[in-house]
């Protein structure tokens, strides 16, 4: 463990400080929300979101100018920004599912903050485990890049094929169905409590099912997000901090752009392109570091074009997200105008007649 944590741009001391600060921020947030469950105002979520985004930018710039290049991270600053933007964009896509989960369980608006916050804590814990496992696998087996790359290319193809049509077809996973069947639960929420008592019996509440659903759903999301960011940086510290900053502002983003999500109609296609790009990048890197005996006789493939520089990756990520967002909003606006014209047209004809 010491070797793994120390093998990055951050020393073990920096790792400890980062974890302690993260836990502190989460505990303060949980205590504040736990004492006063409420639906946040636009001013509140905007302020908090701006704070977390600003903090991520400052952190990335500090890495860019002050962090020493390392074997696992030749360009810490650009690698962090590439990873953070990728994780953030994947998290935005996940908000579609979160909206459906909240609607499916009829979670009162004043309790949604608590559910999201606990779900984010669970997500950070699970992703930390995934990150450590991924780092250990990469250190031990170079062929893991082939597996990661192939999985991302497959995920990209599946995402592009499905587009945004699968969002409304979300179904509970087997674990949630098992819990609902085997454990007695109340139909009504008891504030933000996970357990309650009725007629002397201890029962789970709908909030317990909501948090369990959010946690297990994010576990599935991590299956593509963690390999994706390892395609941009091999440094576990940068992977971890990029995930922290991506998840920190997710709750505020949920309340701020809930309605806007429906307008990002090309987001899935943009993410599919990014995952495919990173998947190809991983396969190319695997070829460059090849040790498999049945490929090139087990020797590395020495070719400059097999290594995509981080500045190009960052440019592709920013460009894809910009084009996807602009195109989505433009098409959505044009569609809304046509629908409005179709609704008002017959009315005007009737009034004139």
What layout of secondary structure does this protein have?
Layout: H1 2-6, H2 12-35, H3 42-66, H4 76-104, H5 109-140, H6 144-162, H7 174-182, E1 195-198, E2 201-204, H8 206-230, H9 236-248, H10 250-256, H11 267-288, H12 310-352
Antiparallel strand pairs: 1-2
Task: Provide a descriptive summary of the structure in words.
It is a single chain. By secondary structure, the protein is mainly alpha-helical. It contains twelve helices and two strands. It has helices at residues 2-6, 12-35, 42-66, 76-104, 109-140, 144-162, 174-182, 206-230, 236-248, 250-256, 267-288, 310-352, and strands spanning 195-198, 201-204. It has a two-stranded antiparallel ribbon. The longest helix is centred in the last third of the chain and has 43 residues, at 310-352.
């Amino acid at each position: 463990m010491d070797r793994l944590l120390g093998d990055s741009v951050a020393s073990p001391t920096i790792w400890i400080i980062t974890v302690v600060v993260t836990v502190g921020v989460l505990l303060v947030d949980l205590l504040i929300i736990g004492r006063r469950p409420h639906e946040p105002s636009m001013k509140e979520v905007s302020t908090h979101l701006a704070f977390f985004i600003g903090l991520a930018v400052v952190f990335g710039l500090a890495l860019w100018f002050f962090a020493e290049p390392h074997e696992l991270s030749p360009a810490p600053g650009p690698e962090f920004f590439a990873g953070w933007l990728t994780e953030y964009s994947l998290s935005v896509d996940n908000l579609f599912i979160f909206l459906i989960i909240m609607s499916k369980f009829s979670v009162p608006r004043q309790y949604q903050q608590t559910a999201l916050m606990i779900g984010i804590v669970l997500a950070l814990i699970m992703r930390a485990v995934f990150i450590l496992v991924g780092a250990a696998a990469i250190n031990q087996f170079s062929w893991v890049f082939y597996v990661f790359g192939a999985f991302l290319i497959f995920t990209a193809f599946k995402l592009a094929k499905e587009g945004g049509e699968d969002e409304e077809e979300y179904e509970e996973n087997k674990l949630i169905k098992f819990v609902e069947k085997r454990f007695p639960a109340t139909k009504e929420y008891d504030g933000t409590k996970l357990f309650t008592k009725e007629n002397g019996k201890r029962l789970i509440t709908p909030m317990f099912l909501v948090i369990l659903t959010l946690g297990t759903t994010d576990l599935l999301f991590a299956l593509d997000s963690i390999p994706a960011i390892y395609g941009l940086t091999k440094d576990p510290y940068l992977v971890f901090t990029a995930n922290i900053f991506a998840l920190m502002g997710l709750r505020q983003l949920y309340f701020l752009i809930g309605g806007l999500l429906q307008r990002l109609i090309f987001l899935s296609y943009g993410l599919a392109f990014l995952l495919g790009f990173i998947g190809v990048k991983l396969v190319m890197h695997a070829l460059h570091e090849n040790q498999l005996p049945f490929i090139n006789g087990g020797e590395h493939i020495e070719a400059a074009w097999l290594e995509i520089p981080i500045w190009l990756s960052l440019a592709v990520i920013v460009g894809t997200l910009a084009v996807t967002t602009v195109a989505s909003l433009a098409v959505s606006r044009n569609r809304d105008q046509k629908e409005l014209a179709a609704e008002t047209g017959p009315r005007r004809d009737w009034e004139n007649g």
